[in-house]
């Protein structure tokens, strides 16, 4: 794989990662918006449930009133029969039939309200559970993203610090090496200077007759003197 191909692949990979990051961020914003809208709809559903329950209670109260009215008019009809007033008893019976018909109508309303309230309660409960689960997942994703972002930052700083430490250590070694080379050069120069100084001094001593000759005759004379 050529350098240009690898470079293109790296750039392409970086672009893809950036695009995915933008898409993920956009997805989270969409989820947040949907959650907010769902919460609004849930509140509306709860308001509707409150209205249905109120109508349910009202229908139940009307049914109870019709029941009480039917019982009351049955008592009237019984009294009319006891008095032998057949026509009045029939009129009361007609009233009772009307009350019972109204009661049945109200009972149908009550059954509908009860069924609606039961279904709506369940739907609201399920929606709340789903919404809570979704919110928890979104919060978890956000928290994980924050932790990973922090870990990436720390890791980058750590790698940067290691790189700087390595560079500093290499610079230190170069400085020490140069210092050692310089010290060796100075020592060599000192040794050369000392040698040159010693040769000059020896010549001057010989010229002044201070240092004796080192010829073979002188050496033999010195040896004979030691034996004598």
UniProtKB/TrEMBL annotation:
The answer on whether this UniProt entry bears the keyword Coiled coil reads yes
User: What InterPro entries does the entry give?
Assistant: PspA_VIPP1
What keywords are assigned to this protein?
Coiled coil
Question: Is NADP a UniProt keyword of this protein?
Answer: no
Q: Where is the composition biased (Basic and acidic residues)?
A: 172-185
- A Pfam match is PspA_IM30
Which portions of this protein are annotated as coiled-coil regions?
117-144
Q: Which PANTHER family does the UniProt record give?
A: MEMBRANE-ASSOCIATED PROTEIN VIPP1, CHLOROPLASTIC, PHAGE SHOCK PROTEIN A
The family assignment reads: Belongs to the PspA/Vipp/IM30 family.
The name this protein carries in UniProt is Phage shock protein A (IM30), suppresses sigma54-dependent transcription
Q: What is the lineage of its organism?
A: unclassified sequences, metagenomes, ecological metagenomes
């Amino acid at each position: 794989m050529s350098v240009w191909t690898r470079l293109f692949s790296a750039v392409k990979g970086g672009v893809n990662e950036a695009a995915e990051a933008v898409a993920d961020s956009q997805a989270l914003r969409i989820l947040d918006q949907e959650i907010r809208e769902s919460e609004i709809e849930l509140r509306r559903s709860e308001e509707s449930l409150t209205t249905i329950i109120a109508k349910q209670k009202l229908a139940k109260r009307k049914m109870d009133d019709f029941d009480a009215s039917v019982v009351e008019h049955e008592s009237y009809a019984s009294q009319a029969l006891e008095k032998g007033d057949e026509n009045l008893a029939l009129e009361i019976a007609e009233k009772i039939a009307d009350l019972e018909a109204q009661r049945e109508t109200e009972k149908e309303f009550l059954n509908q309200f009860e069924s609606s309230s039961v279904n709506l309660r369940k739907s609201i409960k399920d929606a709340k559970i789903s919404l809570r689960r979704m919110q928890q997942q979104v919060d978890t994703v956000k928290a994980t993203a924050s932790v990973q972002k922090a870990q990436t930052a720390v890791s980058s700083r750590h790698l940067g610090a290691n790189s700087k430490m390595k560079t500093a250590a290499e610079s230190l070694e170069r400085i020490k090496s140069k210092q050692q080379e310089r010290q060796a050069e100075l020592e060599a120069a000192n040794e050369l200077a000392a040698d040159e100084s010693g040769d000059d001094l020896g010549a001057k001593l010989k010229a002044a007759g201070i240092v004796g000759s080192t010829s073979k005759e002188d050496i033999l004379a010195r040896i004979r003197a030691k034996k004598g």
